[in-house]
Write a structure and sequence with these properties.
Helix content: 10-25%
CATH architecture: Distorted Sandwich
Strand content: 25-35%
CATH superfamily: Glucose Permease (Domain IIA)
Radius of gyration: 16 Å
Number of domains: 1
Number of helices: 5
CATH topology: Glucose Permease (Domain IIA)
CATH class: Mainly Beta
Largest sheet: 8 strands, mixed
Order of helices and strands: HEHEEEEEEEHEEEEHH
Strand order of the largest sheet: 1-2-4-11-8-7-6-9
Structural class: alpha+beta
Shape: globular
Length: 232
Amino acid sequence: MLSDLLRRHQADFGPVLPVDLNSPEVARLDFTAANPLLTAANLHDTATFDQLVARLLADKNALIGVGGYLEDRVIYRRSPGLFDADPTAPARSLHLGVDVWLRAGTPVLAPLPATVHSLADNEGHGNYGPTVILEHELEGTVFYTLYGHLTRRETALLRPGLAIAQGDTFAEVGPAPENGDWPPHLHFQVIADLQGRTGDFPGVALVAEHATWAALCPNPNLILQSRHLNTD
């Protein structure tokens, strides 16, 4: 399994962001229905959502928020039609990546040698915005990392097939509204098989398909290695 491969190489990974995700200034943020602050908040309004993130961080004396892997979230209700295209079916709410909530303009780094697989500007309220997918290889196994909610300026400089060295800056965390109209954060996801997709991949899935998606998208904290998150 890809998760086993990543565990064997944890000492080899570099940072995805130029910040210490083990710092006491980092805190895990909860966007599930268990968080009472989400109940009355108008998350459709990005400015209000941004204020909520700031409050969640302030309550924990933190500057950076992390979390989200396999979290059953309520925040996707802010984007009708994107995560619940069929009103008769369950809405997608299971988050498949780790979000790092921090300031726009923060550089994004390659955690290991990579090739740009594909990129796209996934526009629309609540979507990824500018997105980059990198391709990696370890022990003969090819896998991918996805970076969402980036800046248009930096991603416009990339092209498929471009080699990126470990530690190189290749993108930046984007501001609203170009980042899909979210409070600034990086969506970081690991993918075993892109299933033929380019420039985009589901970052939110049906809760009922938890096991399938967990196998396809192992825990990004195996690479991030933040003590504030688990690696299961």
